[in-house]
Design goal:
With 517 residues, this protein is mainly alpha-helical. The protein is built from 19 helices and five strands. The protein has a five-stranded mixed sheet with strand order 2-1-3-5-4. Helix 14 runs antiparallel to helix 15 and helix 15 crosses helix 16. The longest helix is centred in the last third of the chain and has 47 residues. It is globular and about 80 Å long.
Length: 517
């Protein structure tokens, strides 16, 4: 197939890497900015700022918020998201304000990440890549949320693109700084994800003896992961212990075939654990197969037209980013693969642009009609799944808010403590501390909870037909929706402030055993 998509003017020679004279053009930047602005606006319209905070979000936001005590911070988590939301959450408890801030910030981040690739692909390819990624329901859903995966995806785009720039042009200082920043952002959000994303870059740097890009990449990873490593020794019993605990919380890392789990999650299941039930309709999952096929087609077409290093790097980093979530953990969440989707979108968009510009009076209109029909169907499916997911999620979080209001009516107000079913998110909504005596979020003991009940309002949450712990069986109870609330007798005045409950950065309560070294 002749390369007409990105053809150079007659009499000129096209080469990689392009010279500095082919830097970003104003028109191309405007096109990328329009895609990013549309992405931010779509989040505010389709996801809506009023959607309450989710379970993981309450953990992250509580670390910097004055609304409630910090929730237990389990071993796999990193402090990137709390720092990301701190400019708003540290002084305001408004969820809509936080959503607007994150939506605008995610749009700006997408623009900057796409702009990094301007020396390697035309603006129309990058704009289409941004649109493909930004219109996935999972991207729109998590863009305005206080979660790390979208930001790992942005960091992956920046890191891979800047690596290619720095590798091609030793004088490109901006590429080196961008490479370090992208690696740091990923490690800041999810250190292990960052390692998987950059794996293909390491042999490229070593093989070509590109020591400066390798140093920038290493420095970025070290800077981003430094806090996580230091905290491992300060609060989790050491780095090996933290890695081991993180693996255990995720069900133990090993060989799993989680491809079918990921497919089940595409119907709008934000967490598929255990991942049972029927597969979504093939129409809903079709894009999941088409995207990597288009990326491979883009790689093949690029190889015929010019050196395919940019497309190869994008596909390679996407493959390693997806590998642990497809084959090493036994459950799924659609957000886990956001970095892979972002990277695959670039060669996939390149393939579509080449198909749309194919020569031939007959073939070109037919291809254009097929591509337009496919994209229209894709958008319809994505927005339908998004609407369903937002509606269900909003209803669930309103249920938590109603439970918190019921607890307030029963006298459970700050300073207070909740334990049991869904205690972490409901405690945040109620402004209480949360505690668990078992499971992955264990941060206290039964004796510590009993002592707390003698000096402050404490409530145990169970399912409607569940049994409370022995110490709470004589407490008054009330059913609220799917939960039953067991409330300890009201504490007297002069209680200890709830803000003093956490005594370590991991969120341990008084009387809880510290992690063993």
């Amino acid at each position: 197939m002749p390369d007409t998509a990105h053809a150079a003017p007659a009499g000129t020679r096209r080469s990689w890497p392009p010279g500095r004279s082919r830097g970003p053009r104003l028109g191309g930047d405007r096109l990328l900015a329009a895609v990013a602005a549309a992405f931010a606006a779509a989040q505010l319209v389709l996801v809506r700022p009023g959607m309450g905070l989710g379970w993981d979000e309450t953990v992250y936001v509580s670390q910097v918020s004055s609304h409630a005590p910090a929730a237990f911070f389990s071993a796999p988590r990193s402090r990137g998201v709390p720092l990301l939301v701190a400019p708003v959450a540290s002084w305001s408890s408004s969820t809509p304000l936080l959503r607007v801030y994150l939506a605008l910030l995610s749009g700006l981040a997408l623009y900057l990440a796409l702009r990094v690739w301007r020396r390697m692909f035309p603006a129309r390819v990058l704009a289409l890549a941004g649109a493909l990624f930004a219109t996935l329901w999972v991207t729109l859903f998590y863009g305005p949320q206080a979660m790390p995966n979208y930001w790992v995806a942005v960091g992956a785009l920046v890191c891979a693109g800047c690596f290619l720039r720095a590798r091609a042009d030793r004088a490109d200082r901006a590429g080196l700084w961008g490479l370090a920043a992208g690696a740091a952002l990923m490690a800041w959000m999810r250190p292990m994800d960052a390692v998987w994303v950059v794996l293909p870059l390491l042999p490229l740097a070593l093989r070509g003896r590109h020591w400066r890009p390798l140093a920038a990449l290493s420095a970025g990873l070290a800077a981003g992961a430094a806090e996580w490593v230091i905290e491992a020794y300060a609060a989790y019993g050491g780095l090996v212990r933290r890695l081991s605990d993180g693996s255990a919380i995720q069900g133990g890392l090993g060989w799993y075939f989680a491809v079918d789990d990921q497919l089940r999650s595409l119907g709008g299941r934000t967490l598929c654990r255990p991942c049972t039930g029927a597969m979504p309709h093939p129409v809903v999952t079709a894009w999941w197969f088409v995207l990597p096929l288009l990326a491979l087609l883009g790689l093949a077409l690029a190889h015929r037209a010019r050196p395919a290093t940019p497309a190869l790097v994008a596909v390679g980093c996407a493959a390693t980013a997806a590998f642990p979530y497809l084959f090493l953990i036994g459950y799924a969440a659609p957000r886990f693969l956001l970095p892979a989707y972002a990277l695959l979108a670039i060669p996939a968009a390149d393939a579509l642009v080449r198909l749309l510009t194919v020569r031939g009076r007959v073939r070109r209109p037919v291809v254009a009609a097929l591509v337009a029909l496919g994209l229209a169907g894709h958008l319809a499916v994505q927005f339908a799944v998004l609407a369903h997911t937002v509606q269900r999620t909003t209803a669930d979080r309103r249920g938590w808010d109603r439970t918190a209001a019921a607890l307030h009516r029963l006298g459970v107000r700050q300073p207070c403590l909740l334990t049991g079913q869904n205690a972490i998110p409901i405690a945040f909504y109620a402004g209480c501390a949360s505690a668990a005596t078992g499971g992955p979020n264990a941060n206290t003991t039964r004796a510590a909870v009993e002592r707390a009940a003698r000096r402050m309002p404490v409530a145990v949450l169970t399912t409607a037909d569940g049994r409370p712990p022995a110490y709470a069986r004589g407490w008054p109870s009330r059913r609220v929706g799917p939960l039953r609330l067991y409330v300890a007798p009201a504490a007297g005045a002069g209680t200890t402030a709830a803000r003093t409950l956490p005594v370590t950065s991991a969120g341990l309560l008084p009387g809880a055993p510290a992690p063993a070294a």
